[in-house]
Amino acid sequence: MRQTGKGSGEPGATGVFPEHGRAVARTDLAGFGLVDDGPDADLDHIVRTAAHLTACEKAFITFAQGEVLHVLAAVGSDTVQTPAATSVCGTAYRNGAPLIVTDLRTDPRFARLPHVDMDSGHRFYAGFPIHLNDGHAIGTLCVIDRAVRPQGLTPDEHALLESLTALTVRVLEGRQRDARWRDYLDIASDWIWEQDEEFRFSYISRRSIGTGMPSGEMLGTTRWEGPSAETEGPAFWARHKALLEAHEPFRDLRYRWRDGETERVTMISGKPVFAQDGTFLGYRGTARDVTEEERTRREVEHMAHHDALTGVANRPTFEARIADAFRAWEETGATATVFLLDIDHFKRVNDTYGHSTGDDLLVEVARRLTECTGPEAVVARLGGDEFAVLDPSLSRGGAVDEYAAMLLQAIARPFEAQHDVIECGSCLGIAVLPDDGGSFSQIMGNADLALYEAKARGRGRHMAFQPRMRRQADSRNTLARELSEAFHDGQFDLTYQPIVRIADQRIIGAEALLRWNHPERGRLLPSAFLAALDSGRHSVDVGYWVLETACRAALPWVEARKRDFRLSVNLFTGQVRDPRLVNRVQAILDKTGFRGANLELEVTEDVLLTPLGDLPEVLKALKRLGISVALDDFGTGFGSLNHLLQFAIDRIKVDRQFVRGLGNSIDHNTVTHAIVKLAVDLGLKVTAEGIETDEQQHFLSLVGCDDMQGFHFSRPVSAEQFPQLMEKTDAMITRRHTGGAMPHANAG
Question: How many Å apart are CA 623 and CA 614, to the nearest integer?
Fold first, then answer.
C-alpha cells in the first residue's frame, strides 16, 4: 500500500452491497502489485495534479478491498484506510458514477458521517469511480476542499478529473499486468533473467536462478561467480564466457551446482540484446531446474543400455561394444574375445524354487562375472539365462583357457537360496574377433556353436570356435531345410521290422520304421536324419503321420493273426511333450479303426530324462486306451531303473549294443542276463533288438527273453511285402512241426 502527503482521506469499497443489488468484482492489492510499502510515483503524480488543477486542499486514490478502502496515494492526508460503509468515497464507488457534493455538512446523506465534522474542515467533495476496462469498479479518485463550492466543478475541472481517472485506470491495469506476469514467472518452471553488457545479472524473476545463491545476491554478479563455478570448473565457464563475448545465442546449456549434499542441474538459454544502433546491451534468457529431468534421463539412458534385472549391459549395448571392438581392430589391429554361456538346468531352478529365486540366481551370476573380470571387460545378459563377456585384452592361447576356467569356477560355486544350496554349472563357447567372424551376428553365432559343442562334451566344459563347427552347423541347417521339404513333398515312407516270438519264431508284431526317399541321396536310414528330425519343428506332425499310416497298414495284419499282433510305433520327443498326445492318439485310433490293445508306443530313455511334468499321468492315460508302453534302448541312459519304477512301462527293449557282444564277451552275457531277469522279476515283457546270429538267439531264449527283432530273422519290409512274410514264416513253422528243416525267413 502506498500513500503521500498529509491530511485525512476518503475511501471506497469492493464487495456486494445489498442495497444496490449488484456485485462489484473482487480484487486485491496483490493482484495489482500494490502490496509493497513506499510511494508510487505515477499515482502520486496523479493526485498532486488533481489537487493542484482543481485548487483543492486534498486528493486521494482509493482502492476497495472487502469492506475497507485503502489509500494508494494522497496529498494533504496521511490516512491509510477507512471503512467503506461510512465514507463518501464508498458512496461514489457503490453508485458507479461521479459524485459531486457542494457542501458535505448540509447534505443529509453525509452530514452525520464521522469524518464530516467541524474539525475536519471537509465541505466540498468530488469523487470519480475507477472502472477497469472490463467494467469492474475498484476504487475512486477524489478531491476535497474546506471551501463550499455552490457551483461544483467547472466543465474543465470535470473533464480533467475524468482524464486523470482514465490515467489512473491505465496505471493500475499496467500494475495488474505486471503483477500477473510476476505470478506467472514465480510459478513457471522457467525463470527469466537479464544480464548487462558485462554479463552481470540485472534482473532475475525468482529468488534463485539455479546457482545456489539468492537472486538478490546474484544481482550485479556473473553466473560463474556462484557455487556452480566450483562444480563445473573454470574450463567450462571459460568456454561459456567466450560464447557470450562473441554475442552468440545459446540454447539448453546445462551446468551442475551443489545444493548442500545434493547435486542439481540447471539448463539455460539466452540471446544477445542490441540497441537500435547495434550497441550490445547484454543478454536475456530463461533458466530451468532440470535436476529431476536429468535424473530421469540418466535412469532412462541406463535402462536403455543395461539389463533391468541384473544391472549388467543388455544385448544392444553388448552389440555396440562388439562394434567398438571391430573399429579398434581396424585402427590398431587389436583383437578381442567373446565368451558365451548359459546356466545348466536353470528351468529346473525356476520350477523347483520359483521365479523369484531364479531371478536372484541371475543377479548373483551377473555379480560374480563382473567381479572376476577386468575393468576393460563388458559383462552382458543377452536374455533368459544367457550371458556373454567381451574382453579386449585377450586373443587366443592359454590365457583364454585360464580366463574361461575362471568364469566357469565362479558360476560353479554353490548358491544359497531359501535355506537351501543350489549347485549350478555352465559351459562356455569362445569366439575371437575378427578371426571368427566379421560382424556381431557371426561372432555370436560362432560362439554359440562352440557352446553347443562344449555342452555335448559334458558339464563345466569350454570350447573355442573352430571352422569345422560352422561346416557341421551348415550341414545341420541344410538337413533341417531338406527335412521340411521332405515332409511337405511326401518323401517319407515306412518299412516294418517283424517282431518274432522267440518261443516258436512266429511273427506276432511289427515295428514301424521311418525311411526317407531323398531326391539326391537316395533312400536314407534313420541314422542319417532321425536326430535332426526329432529336434526339428516337423517332428510332431511326422510322428502322428507315422502312427496313422502304420495303423492303417497293420489293420489287416491284426485280423490275420486274430488280434494276436502288436504294432510298435516310436514317439518323437515333441509328441511326448505335446499336451494333446492322448487326444490325438485316440483320434487316430477312431479314424483308422485300429484297437488300442494292439498298439505299443515306444519312448526312449533320453525323453524320460528330460523333466516333462505330468508324463507319468500321460502314460497312464494311454494305458487306459488299451495301449502298452515300451522303453526303447534300455540300458543306454542314466536313470533306467528309476524309470521302471516311476513310469507305467509294460516292456523293455534291450538295446543292440548289449546284444552285439553276446557269445563273445562274458561281461555282455552277464549284463544282458541281468537286464532280462530284472524285467521278468518286475513283471515286464522283454524284446531284444539287433539279433543277427543263432548264438544270440539261443542265449536270449535261455535267459527268458520274450521277443526278438533283427536281421537274423528278417530285414524290414514294405507294407505290401509284410503279409507275404507272415505267410512264409507260418509255412516254415508248419513244416517244422511236420519234421522239415527250419530255415530263416530271409532264406530262399
Answer: 15
Residue 472: CB partners within 8 Å, gap ≥ 6? 449
> % helix / strand / coil in the chain, to the nearest 5?
40, 25, 35
In the chain, residues under CATH classification 3.30.450.20 are 188-296
pTM of the model: 0.58
Q: Band of the pLDDT at 425, cuts 50, 70, 90?
A: confident
CATH topology of domain 16-184: Beta-Lactamase (3.30.450)
CATH second-level architecture of 308-465? 2-Layer Sandwich (3.30)
All CATH 3.30.70.270 domain ranges of the chain, comma separated, are 308-465
Q: Say if CB 41 and CB 113 are below 8 A apart.
A: no
Give the containing element (helix H, strand E) for 11.
none
Contacts of 274 (CB under 8 A, 6+ apart): 280, 281
Does the structural domain 188-296 have CATH classification 3.30.450.20? yes
* Nearest by Cα to 270 from 296, 292, 240, 236: 240
Cell numbers that stand for 247 in this block: 554475442
484 torsion bin: left (phi>0), alpha (psi -120 to 50), beta (else) = alpha
The whole-angstrom separation of Cα 50 and Cα 194 is 38
Q: Would you place residue 584 in the very low, low, confident or very high pLDDT band (cuts 50, 70, 90)?
A: very high
Pairwise pLDDT comparison (737 vs 455), residue with the higher score: 455
**Alpha-carbon separation of residue 399 from 321, 328, 428, 505 (angstroms):** 21, 21, 15, 63
Q: Are 218 and 71 in contact (CB under 8 A)?
A: no
pLDDT for 370 equals 92
Closest CA to 223 of 267, 276, 281, 163: 267
- Beta-strand relationship, 651-654 and 685-688: parallel
Cα separation, 90 vs 62, in Å, equals: 9
Q: Is there a contact between 692 and 698 (Cβ–Cβ < 8 Å)?
A: no
DSSP helix/strand/coil, 510: strand
**DSSP of 478-491:** HHHHHHHHHHHHT-
Q: How many CB atoms lie within 10 A of CB 616?
A: 13
Residue 22 has pLDDT above 80, yes or no: no
- Pinpoint the residues of the chain covered by CATH 3.30.450.40: 16-184
Q: Which residues of 653-686 are buried (b: 16+ CB within 10 A; e: fewer)?
A: bbbbebbbebeeeeebbebbbebbebbeeeebbb
| pLDDT confidence of residue 613 | 61
Write down the pLDDT at residue 624. 94
The candidate with the shortest Cα–Cα distance to 378, out of 370, 432, 365, is: 370
One-letter amino acid for residue 371 of the chain: E
Q: What mean pLDDT do residues 659-676 have?
A: 79
Domain 488-733 CATH class label: alpha beta
Per DSSP bridges, beta strands 378-383 and 58-65 are unpaired
Nearest 5 degrees, angle CA 195-CA 197-CA 200? 40
pLDDT confidence bin for 197, thresholds 50/70/90: very high
CA angle centred on 318, ends 316 and 321, rounded to 5°: 115
Starting from the edge strand earliest in sequence, which strands make up the sheet with 262-274, in order? 201-204, 190-195, 280-289, 262-274, 250-259
**Spatial CA neighbour of 87 closest among 63, 100, 69:** 69
Q: How far apart are the first and last CA of the chain?
A: 130
- Start and end residues for every CATH 3.20.20.450 domain found in the chain: 488-733
625 within 8 A of 586, measured Cβ to Cβ: yes
Give mean pLDDT, residues 278-291: 90
What distance in Å separates the CA atoms of residue 515 and residue 528, rounded to the nearest whole number? 10
Which residue do the cell numbers 562334451 mark?
Answer: 457
Place 215 in a pLDDT band, splitting at 50, 70 and 90. Answer: low
Q: Are strands 685-688 and 628-634 parallel, antiparallel or unpaired?
A: unpaired
Q: Band the pLDDT of 320: cuts 50, 70, 90.
A: very high
Instruction: Write down the mean pLDDT value for the chain.
Output: 84
- Is the pLDDT assigned to residue 223 strictly greater than 50? yes
